[in-house]
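This section describes the prediction task in plain terms. A model, or a person checking by hand, is given the sequence of a single protein chain and must write out its three-dimensional structure as a string of tokens. No templates, partner chains or ligands are provided. The sample shown here is typical of the held-out split.
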Amino acid sequence: MSAIRSKTSSTGASITRTSSNSTTPMSSWSSGGSRCATVRHTPRHRAPAQENGLMSEFATQQIQAGYVPGTPQNSAVPPLYQTAAYQFASLADAAELFALRKSGNLYSRNASPTQQVLEERVAALEGGASAVAVASGQAAVAVTLLAIVGVRGHIVAANQLYGGTVDLFQETFEDFGIPVTFVDQDDPEAWRAAIRPDTRALFAESVANPVAQVLDIRLVADIAHEAGVPLVIDNTVGTPYLVRPGEHGADFVVHSATKFLSGHGTSLGGVVVDQGTFDFGAEPERWPHFTAEYRRVPGLVLWERFGIGQAFAALVKSKYVHDLGPSLSPFNAWQILQGIETLDLRVSRQSSSALAVAQFLAQHPSVAKVNHPGLEGNPWHDLAERYLPQGVPSVFSFDLAGPEDEGTQERIGRVIDGLKVVRLIANIGDARSMVAHPASMTHSHLNAEQRAAAGISLNTIRISLGLEDPRDIIADLDQALARA
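The expected answer:
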């Protein structure tokens, strides 16, 4: 039972942003540099217990003095609400919140006020109706599809996905009784042929990690909607600055906020945005978890109570985040908010640097292929021009020249280990430039056939451009490639 609110509405069980964790303000002064004194200002608010003389003992004062829950402050930036729980106004108020009949703060496993700011901000950036933030991008994908697919539903997904997502789909979801069929994202007939009566969602990445295939989002969205199911897009690599999948037909957009949204490589987080475009009430028998009575809240039907654009968030928070516990810490939410404030500036620079590096690699004798859709002749160049007019993302890959044999790993190792500026890190979207070897790292659980379907060979190196000067990155790659 959760804290839920869209970026424009307070319907649902939402988080308010009126409480404060402020302590009594203090100021200090010094005289002549030799003595310091501290002046305590008179508190603007005193707890009722203090006023009534009920907080007179030391042990009570050390816990409760100086703070009144719900006291508003005038911070110019979103504050960090580092709290696990919230004080209710009354037992009746608490009962209303737990029954999802009233908006307000409940418990930080479901959400925190800091997280609510993050959710509203990402929903705004993606042009969506509401959002849910969780502990990681992997958690965002998991809770999104669990909430949509329900019991024994089926998913059709692109072959071209991040390796961790493939692991989730082909192992954990299979264990849950949720089968996933993988298809070539560029083959519309493969998408159509894979759809079954029990299919409940189509899933793909806007720009695939690591080979940077650009998805024809509108085409796949139309196929999904013809079948009466939503399209879920992972826009981690694309970022809402470069592409907003909802504008091209996607119904739900997920992010690993750890990556570009955060941008500093310090904080895990994930977000899913409900675009408010998919009507689960149009065929209620296919979506009973939205349209039938909600078992844990007798008499409540989520679709009737919250409606389009809100019911999904209510289900995710009150069931999947509540039960499974992939909660985003308030501190991580606050850190990610700091990163988002410079998203467009960072992504613009990273995109420009990546194109310069790709152009350098394309003419290097030790490189067999560069998978960057900004380059002329790339299979997804036309789609990049259509969907990514502000620039191509800074995550792409290249293949070293040479055979795939017993010596490949050693050759790859010489190049990667020879880098001095670019770092070997299993991450993307950071301020730092980094590389990874998908076949032995992020996609190591895939078999040879799956790697080939995703466009990954043993010679493939993924690179994510950071904010360094591209001339330093090019020079570093040039000296490392000399070792190939």
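For orientation: The CA atoms of residues 49 and 55 lie 6 Å apart.
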